[in-house]
Design goal:
The protein is mainly α. The chain has one domain. The chain contains three helices and no strands. Helix 1 packs antiparallel against helix 2. The longest helix is centred in the middle third of the chain and has 28 residues. The protein starts with a helix and ends with a helix.
Length: 77
């Protein structure tokens, strides 16, 4: 897959993880600066691991098993 595929995916995962982590830190009573720092650090770690896992599965030509499981359920009916 091209870089045009991976960069938006990395940015989307990073942004979602950052918002959730920073918001949870603010709700726990941490300062805004600490919440942003914590959110940036863990969002970077989370998005890197998530995308590395997806890249690993795609490089091995492994697809999600959910559609296949859905087909098996329909075949049993």
């Amino acid at each position: 897959m091209e870089l045009r595929f991976w960069v938006p995916r990395l940015a989307a995962v990073f942004a979602i993880a950052f918002l959730i982590i920073a918001a949870s830190q603010l709700l726990k009573g941490h300062s805004v600066e600490d919440a942003i720092t914590h959110g940036l650090l863990w969002a970077a770690i989370t998005s890197t691991i998530f995308n590395a896992g997806r890249f690993w599965n795609l490089s091995r030509c492994q697809r999600c098993a959910v559609p296949k499981a859905g087909q098996e359920m329909q075949a049993k009916r």
